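Holo prediction. Input below; ligand is guanosine-5'-monophosphate.
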Amino acid sequence: MEWWVSIPKVELHAHLNGSIRNSTLLEIARELGEKGTIVFSDIEHVIRKNDRKLHEVFKLFDLIHVVTTDHKTITRITKEVVEDFAAENVVYLELRTTPKRNDAIGLSKRSYMEAVVDGLRSVSSNNLEINFSGADLETFSKSQTKMRIIVRLLLSIDRRESTASAMETVNLALEMKDMGVIGIDLSGNPTVGDWKNFFPALKFAKDQGLSVTLHCGEVPNSVEVQAMLDFLPGRIGHACCFQDEDWNKLKSYKIPVEICLTSNIRTETISSVDVHHFGNLYKENHPIVLCTDDSGVFSTNLSTEYALVSSAFGIGKMELFQLARKAVDFIFAGNEVKMELKKVYDAAARTLK
Ligand code: 5GP
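Structure of the complex:
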């Protein structure tokens, strides 16, 4: 396992509230229980449960949101999530989250995102340096700090949202470009909502120069999958329930796929690792990147995903190091960041055994 931790890795599909530490979630839930805001015993067994089908995962997220959605907690979990990724040598992280509004506690989508950015700001310590806005990349690249992580943000649109609400998220992303926001994600329960509702906001995002990634094909829905692929997103996540015509289109368009192995197995979207589409996409040299999806909810981390792929598909360490390096080509940040990351991989390649 140590080897998989030691290689530099790029994480492109991580949901903030899905990556929360179990210990933090239980601690906050217990505190709210003591205050009488929630009944802790009702929540504890749901948090501790390990096997959840896809629809149960979305129920869990609703519960997590009750517990985490206030400014202070969002700042805390952002800091912890980034520190956890950095601790396993993730050198570039695209962290995605759904901006939320709760008038009762004075939370707006903007103040939610500002709390996230506060979390990023609070990461810097003696042994870890973070870069989350392009502005100070030059200073960062000269830094000799032991651990370094570059973080960029994607704003998620939840499939339960209206067109107007989705548009509000895209406008917020545009306003927060100088705070490290570089793109938009479409996620949330795949059996809810209609692609047509989100299309105007996603097209607007693309036209305005934001990168877009879509959760695509988590449930069988070939009409939606075809429309999503024709939209030519920068990347897609999952691609579990694809028909032949969908694979053909994906491959001809060369759209990179964010692969979330443990998540797909745990939610039973894919029946077992050995039949996972990773195998075929890897063999055909299709652009792919290994990701965690929800490291807290699925009790995984990126090093574990690499180790899992290695053992399940019999792929050697150096081949997977090259796969990790190749992920740099699919990040949404610009060339400056790509060049910085290539330097990190070049340095690592010189020391690998
Ligand atoms: P948040 O956006 O609140 O930081 O992260 C949790 C949210 O991400 C969930 O409520 C859901 O909308 C989205 N999400 C997390 N994991 C998945 C997944 O596997 N599939 C889909 N479609 N959405 C997910």
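DSSP finds 16 helices and nine strands in the chain. That is the main takeaway for now.
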